[in-house]
Amino acid sequence: MAKTVKTIGVLTSGGDAPGMNAAIRAVVRAAIAKGIKVKGIMRGYAGLLQEEIIDMEGTSVSDTINRGGTILYTARCTEFTTAEGQALGAEICRKHGIDGIVVIGGDGSFRGAGKLSALGINTIGVPGTIDLDIACTEYTIGFDTAVNTAMDAIDKVRDTSTSHERCSIIEVMGRHAGYIALWCGIANGAEDILLPERYDGDEQMLINRIIENRKKGKKHNIIINAEGIGHSASMARRIEAATGIETRATILGHMQRGGTPTCKDRVYATIMGAKAVELLAEGKSNRVVAYKNGAYVDFDIQEALAMTKDIPEDQYNISKLMSR
Fold first, then answer.
1. Are residues 178 and 197 in contact, defined by beta-carbon separation less than 8 angstroms?
2. Cα 166 vs. chain centroid, distance in angstroms?
3. What is the rounded CA–CA span in Å between residue 45 and residue 211?
4. Hey, which end of the chain has fewer CB within 10 Å, N or C?
């Protein structure tokens, strides 16, 4: 018989992402509409173990949908990767009457959610990461805002790169995934895009292209470098030494994780948060909400974690075609 959920906890874990507040807001208001109480768990799993738990009402999330970051704060918690930490987390949930939790975060957060579910706490994951690296879903909360933030910054760097007739290496975030780099490379018309999934380390190829482009009359060169490759500053020095062309590195960094979420991130996050509450209300557990083929669906957490994801070959090929 399905377990009746009377109180839902909600937490954000791992890296913050624009749109997390929209998801929190949706969880709170969708749960209250169903007569379910909501408790906010501060600072992710670390806050759970410290019992940093607050009651939330509909007004608790007023005027938050437009805010970046997460009103519940976030942290990483090595203690929760242990069996003892996980058992303590489940015990604390029961102590506070929490029989269902919505975990908003990435793969690491979902592993913790799976452990809580196995310990009897109904748990649903909502994908919140700017990296777009969760294999079961085509959308993750924060990616759209992050890629638009990076695109805008790269446009500005291009202006000064053109003015000074230089080569610019612009490093974007994404951890071990190249989705932000790929999208920015296409959107910003980059001459080269370096992706962890594709780049073979052939720096001479980059040097040759820069020299060839200069011979063709191109006055600037934009290289988008993914965080998973990194070393942009040293790469810039080597390229400048080899080409004689002034080369600068710009690392956009954590600005990509902040800022007002886009319409897409607000709407998709809201729907995913509400969907998570629906699943808990149905007595379901150990599920991840996902967006796949134009629909909001859900997967078993272990099944989702076992999935693999790669850069779409057609998108990569188009990026190469456009850079000529």
1. yes
2. 32
3. 51
4. N
Residues 6 or more apart in contact with residue 314 via CB below 8 angstroms: none
Report the DSSP pairing between strands 167-172 and 221-226: parallel
pLDDT in tens, 208-245: 999 999 999 988 899 999 999 999 999 999 999 999 99
pTM for the whole thing?
Answer: 0.95
Counts of helices then strands in the chain (DSSP H, E): 11, 11
Which residues are bridge partners to 167 per DSSP?
A: 221, 247
Reported residue count of the chain is: 324
- Residues annotated as catalytic are 131
Residues 295-314 have pLDDT tens digits of 999 999 999 999 999 999 99
Helix 263-281 to helix 20-33 angle, to the nearest 10 degrees?
Answer: 40
